[in-house]
Amino acid sequence: MDVVKIPFNTLKEAINSAFSGKQPWQIVSFTTSAVLFVVWLYDFVDREESLLVRGKKTVFRLARYIPAVRRKVEQELTSINNGFQDDVAKRTSHLEYIVKLPDKGWSKEMILSTLNKNLTLNKETWESGQSSGAVYAHDEVVLDLVAETFKVSSYTNPLHPDLFPGLCKMEAEVIRIVCNLFHGDEESCGSMTSGGTESIMMACKAYRDYARETRGVRKPEMVVPVTAHSAFDKSCLYLGIRMRHIPIDPNTCQVNLKAMKAAINRNTIMLVGSAPNYPYGTIDDISEISKLGLRYNIPVHVDSCLGGLLTVFMNQAGYPPPVTDFRLPGVTSISADTHKYGFAPKGTSVVLYREAKFRHHQYTVTTDWLGGVYGSPSVCGSRAGGNIASCWATLLHYGLEGYITATRDIVHTARHIEKGLRRLKGIFIFGQPATSVVAIGSNDFDIYRLSDGLYKLGWNLNALQYPPGIHICVTLMHTKDGVADKFLQDVKQCLAEIMKDPALPVEGKMALYGTAQQLPDRSIVSDLTRYFLDSMYYIPKLKELQSKRTPANEPMYMPFEPGAAVLLRSLEPIVGMEEMKQFRQGKRASEITKPEKLCDGPSKLCISMDIKKDNCNKLDLGDPDNNMLWVEDDFLMNPDHLSVVKTSRIGIESAGEEWAQKPLRFYIAGDTNFVIWKN
Ligand SMILES: *Cc1c(COP(=O)(O)O)cnc(C)c1O
């Protein structure tokens, strides 16, 4: 007792002497400020992002206030952003962009022909098995089955179980089938979701709410290997959970269990292991993670999104994997993607729970909405019954035998590739690939050079960072004859070239990736990534169209023919000179009569013309003055607006008798650029 008393008394005296002579209001205000400061400090330190990360962010954010830095950064970002856009523009330069509803609906033929033109872009890469992952199977029989299934179920929605009870039955069957594959007992249950990310997010949500209710956890944290999928980070961001990343053993590429154990605290809502993970395809020691979960009474989620529907068949396929499922008593949930190795069309995944109490916390219920009591199991309200039915149909089509065969082929191919790669000098394999992913690194050269070299040979692999690496995710596409051997052959060929001078730096696109990794300011990387995402939504702007110059003295003549329309941004890349000559030699009865009036800006001339019926199918638009020309129809108001251009094209596309009698207008601007729709 004395031991405690003495310092306490000393402390008391120290405080008394510090405040001696102070007025009561001073003491009160000092104490209040001190307490508030401590509370603030605690809150400042204890956030979802660590102090270090936030400190770094602040420094870089402040640095960007320096004008010179900001200009430089913005310049670089803009140029890279333009690069992204140009890439997309180039890939689609021969295709039309539709930015407005057609006045009249298109015919089925027209829609399907345009659809196919869009879908054939880069088809050869994945069809030949030269891309990693992405397409897991491409089987005409399954495609037909899915098409037929979708046809009769596309309108269904499990949100209305009274209307579509059979659809709900099929969803329940899919969940039960997958539960059984993962050795769940009768109590196990789950949900179908739109994909792995949603499955993972649902488990995180369930555990967050479960921990809040049962243990009063207000500042939830999850303990997750660095190799786990970024869907966990996304879930943290969406759900306000703090991420505790756990390093891996660099040799085995499995999570470091000691570090995992050390990261567990009273706020931990879940532990995560991958079976297998995405970067290296290695399987964490799930059995030990399960034990940790039991010991600390914390739920354990096993992410089997990628390889789960391989591991469950691997025993029978002759490649027994470690046990990673509900047979381990600490495992409380599993995510598995039916749209990966289940070979179902994209848009389905399953999240499974050992007990119904967890699934209850996954649900969202609002009881007081004016629209009624609303309960929904996952993120979506309405859900695609067509996807559920197609997944159900695919599972039944393959059957146990089909999946075992597919698994055997895939794992066999992955092992074959792994063995072949291990024989090659200059590269190494990360950890022990467990299922279908084989990751390659190098101590001798920049591994992105290999990626770049393979890219030039048509291969599309995935890049890894920290440390740099690349991986191939083997699917049914790679099990076709010769694909794996061609891959090994191509790697060998690239290596021979690289090893001539291993010290050379990487060039091309992969250089950007390498640089991005070394950038300490991650906010720039995230800006870049945002621009990249923007480029997925690329639609040409009229200004961009105008900035593309066609060579002088090259008037443009374009025939209009029935079929899909093409937006010409510039003449050259789409129509070769030879082709152009032919156009010019052909009949081109220019129907342009005479300038009618000036309109819309100083350099624009508005000409109206009548198009005769027999010119309907083939109409040459001449531009004798090498001026900018675009087509509009009557209700055009603002020529600077892309949609206007669009309107006119649609008029031409739906060419029929009615259209033939309609006057069209051509705006000719005093510039040497072209924007024209070729039909
Ligand atoms: C693909 C994948 C996910 C996420 O699945 P999506 O269907 O892409 O949302 C999660 N975990 C792993 C290991 C994956 O490979």
Automatic annotation (TrEMBL):
Pathway: Lipid metabolism; sphingolipid metabolism; Sphingolipid metabolism. InterPro entries: Formyl_transferase-like_C_sf, GrpII_AminoAcid_Decarb, MPG, MPG_sf, PyrdxlP-dep_de-COase, PyrdxlP-dep_Trfase, PyrdxlP-dep_Trfase_major, PyrdxlP-dep_Trfase_small. GO terms for cellular component: endoplasmic reticulum membrane. The keyword Plastid does not apply. GO terms for molecular function: alkylbase DNA N-glycosylase activity; DNA binding; pyridoxal phosphate binding; sphinganine-1-phosphate aldolase activity. CDD domains: DOPA_deC_like. It is found in: Endoplasmic reticulum membrane. It catalyses: Hydrolysis of alkylated DNA, releasing 3-methyladenine, 3-methylguanine, 7-methylguanine and 7-methyladenine. Belongs to the DNA glycosylase MPG family. This is 3-methyladenine DNA glycosidase.
